[in-house]
Design a protein that fits this description.
With 271 residues, the chain is an all-alpha fold. It has one domain. The protein is 75% helix and 1% strand. The chain has a two-stranded antiparallel sheet with strand order 1-2. A hairpin with a 2-residue loop joins β1 and β2. α2 runs antiparallel to α3. The chain is globular and about 55 Å long. The model has no long low-confidence stretch (mean pLDDT 82).
């Protein structure tokens, strides 16, 4: 039994390392790796299947908080964060994240996951075959009507337990943002998704009788303690790797990540 727990603990530490590198490399929070691994580990230790996904998503969002800070600080050293976009998008992303957390406790996210996977496949084609002439606009529109974009990013991301980098980078590159700047900006935007999202899941799970020991609401404190230190340590490594690649190569790598993620979502939702 002890050997099994050690193996599971090592699996989470390794997951944290990989998630951190991906967070720095692509501006994502790492939730796309953390959530499925946590779901498997929680199943192996006997956590109730009816709350397993809630715990995985909530813990992932909590882990993304320090990961986003670590990644964003490193990207800021390269002057790769657009604070004008942050200022305009952050309030709407925060609102969307809170709303998404509330909805997540009420409905199933399978339909949204399928839509997200389909969109990811479409956008990945754009990223892999990157051409500036295919952008929707020469700059990111910041008018009130476009507030639906960051609100949707916050909403969908908090439901899925991801930092929103996937949606943010896709969106920003469609509006002609250079890939490195899109990734740096997305890294900081992840904080405005993960923080309210994690707080929401703490409140939502506070009185749930199915919650296991060593949990704060739906957040697994053990999972957080094992994974988050590694994501914080390795996120700067991912940032350094990101600046080795040209914009064209990084766009293609991100496109390939989207394809893998889309197929994982399709498989997990339809199986």
């Amino acid at each position: 039994m002890m050997d099994s727990l050690i193996i599971l603990g090592l699996a989470m530490v390794i997951t944290g390392s990989i998630a951190g590198i991906l967070a720095g490399l692509f501006g994502i929070g790492g939730g796309i790796i953390i959530v499925p691994v946590l779901e498997i580990v929680l199943g192996l230790i006997g956590i109730d299947s009816s709350i397993r996904m809630h715990v995985s998503v909530a813990t992932s969002l909590a882990i993304i908080i320090p990961t986003s800070v670590s990644s964003a600080l490193k990207h800021h050293q390269h002057q790769a964060i657009d604070f004008k976009i942050i200022k305009n998008w952050a309030p709407f992303i925060l609102f969307g994240a809170l709303f998404g957390t509330w909805i997540a406790s009420k409905v199933h996210g399978h339909t949204l996951a399928i839509i997200f996977a389909f969109m990811s496949l479409l956008i990945s084609i754009k990223m892999i075959f990157f051409k500036e002439t295919h952008n929707l606009s020469d700059k990111v529109p910041l008018n009130p009507i476009m507030s639906i974009v960051p609100t949707s990013i916050g909403f969908l991301s908090s439901m899925m337990g991801i930092g929103g980098g996937t949606f943010s980078v896709m969106t920003l590159t469609l509006f002609n943002q250079p890939i490195h700047r899109a990734i740096g900006t997305a890294a900081l935007l992840g904080l405005f998704i993960s923080l309210p999202g994690a707080i929401g899941y703490v409140i939502a799970g506070w009185n749930d009788p199915r919650i296991p020991e060593m949990n704060l609401g739906y957040i697994s404190l053990i999972g957080f303690a094992l994974i988050s230190p590694m994501t914080v340590l390795t996120a700067p490594v991912g940032v350094r790797i990101a600046y080795i690649f040209s914009e064209a190569k990084l766009s293609k790598l991100f496109g390939l990540l989207l394809i893998l993620m889309a197929f994982r979502l399709f498989y997990g939702t339809l199986s």
